[in-house]
Design goal:
Blueprint (H helix, E strand, L loop, with lengths): L1 H4 L3 H23 L2 H18 L9 H19 L20 H16 L3 H12 L4 H8 L3 H23 L14
């Protein structure tokens, strides 16, 4: 870490190689699109290289790098107007079981709701539930107070529940009653 902070490219390459998979996983989870996630991850690595000499507490590199990748996701989302995510993460992570169709439907419904959340809400959910970070570390990674992280997570989960419930409601319209002219 110290050598990379002093500008040693080989040391930084090792650091980047050890971090790239987790940074890309976070970016993909937040962005929902592999191409946008790659762009955000690449920008995050550039920013990490540029800002690494100013990192005062090297033991906090992981939380610091999460903050940088989330900010890169925010910037990418602003640059990409009204993008529709291509949520293809390859083969399913879970084996197909007897109740496999129900799980697939639930997962699809959750993903549709998640994609409609704002990026800042997706980021807090990813950091807390996907990476299993405690809220104080989520706050540190996002550069926000712990109370703000808590309320953002609360709002995000409520919004996600509402989106899933709205998605589950039937959308068929009843035909309008016929009015006969006399």
């Amino acid at each position: 870490m110290t050598r990379a902070q002093r500008g040693d490219r080989a040391a930084f390459e090792g650091l980047a190689a050890a971090s790239i998979d987790r940074l890309h996983a976070v970016a993909f989870s937040v962005m929902g699109d592999p191409h946008l996630a790659e762009d955000a991850t690449q920008q995050a690595l550039i920013n990490i290289w540029r800002d690494l000499p100013r990192l005062r507490e090297p033991e906090r590199f992981e939380a610091w790098s999460y903050r940088i990748v989330v900010r890169a996701c925010y910037a990418e989302a602003r640059r990409t107007p009204r993008w529709l995510p291509n949520y293809d993460d390859g083969p399913a992570n879970e084996p197909f079981a007897v109740d496999g169709l129900g799980r697939i439907a639930d997962r699809d419904q959750l993903e549709r709701g998640f994609r409609r959340l704002p990026v800042d809400q997706r980021a807090v959910i990813v950091l807390h539930h996907y990476l299993d970070l405690p809220l104080h570390e989520v706050a540190q990674a996002l550069g926000i107070p712990v109370g703000t992280a808590h309320s953002r997570l609360h709002r995000a989960m409520n919004a996600l529940r509402a989106l899933i419930a709205a998605d589950a409601r039937p959308t068929t319209l009843e035909p309008a009653p016929r009015v006969e002219a006399r």
